[in-house]
Specification:
The protein has 109 residues and is an alpha+beta fold. The protein is built from one helix and nine strands. A hairpin with a 2-residue loop joins strand 5 and strand 6. The longest helix has 19 residues. It is globular and about 35 Å long.
């Protein structure tokens, strides 16, 4: 059996996995129709990841318009999304299923 294709695939994935391990990751919890914390501070000009854990009874959708990100998270599930490097500033986010209460901001410094 020729394992060369598998070895090549593993070699291509390893650098990405190692890079992802070095990426700053920030935790966000959706619970009782709100996000905690409401403000996430991230470094400027650096890719980062936000992981959303949904503790609501129903689904929640983490959404930003700049940059455009949408992440639907089922109850009891944690999902993540990677953001590109952002310039310093404030970037609002909200929960699509709790628009009046699930609000927050990413502050890039």
């Amino acid at each position: 059996m020729n394992f060369a294709p598998l070895a090549l695939a593993a070699a291509l994935l390893l650098p990405a996995a190692a890079h992802a391990a070095d990426m700053p990751t920030f935790q966000l919890v959706a619970e009782n129709g709100r996000f905690t914390p409401e403000t996430i501070e991230v470094p400027a000009n650096t890719r980062f990841r936000i992981e959303v854990t949904n503790r609501n009874a129903g689904p929640e959708e983490f959404e930003t318009s700049n940059p455009m990100k949408e992440l639907v998270v089922a109850p009891g599930v944690t999902r993540g999304t990677v953001f590109p490097p952002l310039k310093p500033g404030t970037y609002p986010f909200f929960g699509e299923f709790h628009k009046d209460t699930a609000k927050g901001q990413i502050v890039v410094k």
